[in-house]
Records
---
Amino acid sequence: MAFDIDMIREVYANMAKRVDMARDIVGKPLTLSEKILYSHLWEGNPTKKFERGKDYVDFAPDRIACQDATAQMALLQFMQAGKQKVAVPTTVHCDHLIQAKSGAAADLISANSTSAEVFDFLESVSNKYGIGFWRPGAGIIHQVVLENYAFPGGMMIGTDSHTVNAGGLGMVAIGVGGADAVDVMAGMAWELKFPKLIGVKLTGNISGWTSAKDVILKVAGILTVKGGTGAIVEYFGEGAKNLSCTGKGTICNMGAEVGATTSTFGYDDSMERYLRATDRSDIADAANEVRKHLTADPEVYANPEAYFDEIIEINLDELRPHLNGPFTPDLATPVGQLGAKARENGWPIQVDWGLIGSCTNSSYEDLTRAASIAQQAVDKKIKPKSDFGINPGSEQIRFTAERDGLLQIFENLGATIFTNACGPCIGQWDRSDLKGDEKNTIVHSFNRNFSKRADGNPNTHAFVGSPEMVAAIAISGRLDFDPMNDTLLNEDGQEVKLEEPKGIELPPQGFDVEDAGYLAPTEDGSSVEVKVSPTSERLQLLSPFVPIKPEELQGVKLLIKAFGKCTTDHISMAGPWLRFRGHLDNIANNTLIGAVNAFNKKTNFVKNQLTGEYGGVPDTQRAYKAKGIKTIVVGDHNYGEGSSREHAAMQPRHLGVAVVLVKSFARIHETNLKKQGMLGLTFKNENDYDLIQEDDTFNFVDIADFAPNKPLTIEVVHADGSKDTIIALHTYNDAQIGWFNEGSALNVIQRENA
Ligand code: F3S
């Protein structure tokens, strides 16, 4: 479901009107981020000023993108909404479930066989509900979105953290959980806390070995992995204009690594060139007509301190190439200083692999710059010391790069060309050279380098760099190699030096592709059958959740009192469980297995009050469910922090947990609990957490009067018959109480659509 130009013109017409209104309301010139946010309000025209970092605001995104791992549960939920079609243009991209092993051809055949039922399901649901479907091998979601769907001034959400990549084409693009995407697909608003704004002023020009990637590697070093939380990072300045559009995409992509809500750039000539090169001249023409709205007001960039909450300035003339890592993307070290640091810390100097690609760095420009280094190795007779792997970002990129001889250059160095997919970036890498958990070093042009991320080995030290730096380091085979100053010994025993990389921004002969891998949905999907086998281990159609009745909230048993940190990973672990993302009952077998039981400090070891025996959390919970007994989970501060995955709420709900009572919530998880028709409550008095004992039973004495702003009273009955009364606070509004009363937000949508 591609954008038609009329839709974009409508967005721009709204923008022209709403930006002026917003400027009047806010009372001062606007940043680009504010222009996009205020022109995408759910209510339409702006009527009031929102306070950054405080107000929750309903937005109306222009489109949605989902990747195959997260799309499964999102689409299973959407199927319950009772809609004929998605309300907002949506695409599904099969990129996460393809393992890199021997090379694109064989790996794709293997993925198509092992994940056939998941791909078939996604394809059939997409076809039925008007969703564009990108087949396995078509490319990585964010590269495909940049090439086909992103447009300046637009707003999109996607069920993947690196949705933010589309900021490179001037969007506000934000990664969300599946439940949020389902709301928007079903025609509801999408809520976001109005972000704070960080301005990054780029002066000077990048040149030589320095690339766009080094801008974000530097920013990550400054902001750290949490520094962008709750903020949009807006880049501006002459240096920004001089970056290519895909370079901007790289910078925005890794905004996820500083925790930013998203990042963006104002519309400029580089974006216009990219739009025209990707066959979207109509969008470029439309954008040119509203050019002044697609960047901040001139006063903002002239005096940024007055308009942003924080300002960072980077002089690109002085910026040096960086390698960030290991184990965290914000540990930034200029190339040249890494050897000493590695020796100090015991990081292996020898580099075993250089990996180029991912959604972060697989543009034509990236490949040409890296290939210009690879070609020198051939020309100068330098035998590469590390293995090379390449993941092109899309079939369009791959096809064009093959046509232009770029892939052959890498193959001449013995590189393996993997599928146009995530592969090693998401741990989908069958790495044959590893014998066990041995300590080793790899360099890659991806975004994340947390422990185990690429190959599952906790002792793989992964460093993030630009594709050309990855190529140079991989050729040298050494982490302490500095291509700007060091020489390499070639096969003739001569000392040779690598020249600066040379890139080509856009293919001189244009992009080309034979089969991009896109399947447009049928116009009328009513007769399309969705394929889910009842015996499937990986997919399960959902049944609507049954409302929790007030009488069921008497005699509620404690399932677990979680001690300390309890993130969404503790509640619904990832790793091997990923394969069950589309099967609620199977993935529910990991529910809370990572949470620490406050009474014995063990994980997955809780008391079954019915038998007195101890067992795993899911098994114990299933025993309560079998007897029709509802349960409660008690937790500490910031319960449910981490990802926005809705499984962390759906799984306990599926197993019969009715209430989560904690000292405080991570807000997205709290909302997810509400959406699934559960009670998410907080202690009025935090110390009441200490009153909860292992054999407690809970009576929600005034649940029949559940109302906004009215605390709930809970009678806690201990094993010896003594009682405590606890006051629990909640943040449910009328609509959310409706979700609780009807069993879930989706049940409400379905009723409204009936
Ligand atoms: Fe895929 Fe890695 Fe990007 S997992 S979407 S290539 S961050």
Note: Residues 95, 140-142, 160, 162, 358-359, 422, 425-426, 446-447 surround FE3-S4 cluster (CB under 6 Å).
---
Amino acid sequence: MHLSSPTPFPSQRPRRLRRDAFTRNLVREHRLSPHDFIYPVFVHEGEGRRTPVPSMPGVERLSLDLLLPVAEECVQLGIPCLALFPSIDGALKTPDGKESLNPEGLIPRTIRALKAAFPELGVMTDVALDPYTSHGQDGLVDESGYILNDETVEILVGQALAHAEAGVDMVAPSDMMDGRIGAIRDALEAHGHIHTRIMAYSAKYASAFYGPFRDAVGSAANLGASNKDVYQMDPANTDEALREVALDLAEGADMVMVKPGMPYLDVLRRVKDEFRVPTFAYQVSGEYAMLKAASSNGWLDHDKVMMEALLAFKRAGADGVLTYFALEAARLLQRPRA
Ligand code: PBG
């Protein structure tokens, strides 16, 4: 017992506010809503075609006809936006990824169909070459194996324009080439697409947590033992993330993103504090796979860890989260509380 203590009682009892649900509800600092989510989906050709992604339990690649009801549920649940990722036929993959420029390609057709059916639902597309290249890299490769920057940016500009012509609401360059945000912004302006929003994958790390995604778009086998270390960021760095965000904002990004999510919450917080701009987190495929695997083994409570992980992004400063849990989490949020 401390003799200098003025009373034998604690002078503050923070537990008072935790005692009942009503006070916990009153003082809660952050809340999740379906409006916080962007739902990434994988599309492929065909009709009535769905193929599961084994490393992402519950995630399937869908043909357009099967995607439409999913989009409808997003509208009903209040999920503002879908993010489209293509799993294209292996025969269309080339070293230069030129199928990414095809105005009649899978993604432009999907954009048009979604915008026609659900004009109020936001549609976002990835701008990057990896689903389209025979080597699985996000850019053109020279003889030495180096990923060329400026030549790649030229193709990315064409890809972004093809998506804009098809009516996409937001493009999200995920390639990490230098100068691509400025080049895409200039091209969008020059072609009259002044409303097309750019969400820049600004602080995108060279992460092993993307493994299941690469299975989903079929780039994993093509990539083989090579990596993306010469363009994606070193997981050891955070000052560099601020520099990347500053560049993307100066070049015309409307929103920025930190990716992966949970292992990089410190980066998210620094970016939000420094720039105070709309900032998003991507809870990536590997994070999803971990939570699914542990909960399907009964080691974690699925719904509780899902909501806790998503809430953590808001607490760390995210305005929204790209998450494969979007539908499940939004359904849970919509359910009337007991
Ligand atoms: C493509 C891209 C990747 C992801 C989003 N866009 C993979 C990569 O960079 O290798 C990863 C998403 C995820 O893991 O969920 N450039």
Note: The pocket of PBG is lined by residues 126, 128, 130, 138, 174-175, 210, 213-214, 228, 284-285 (CB under 6 Å).
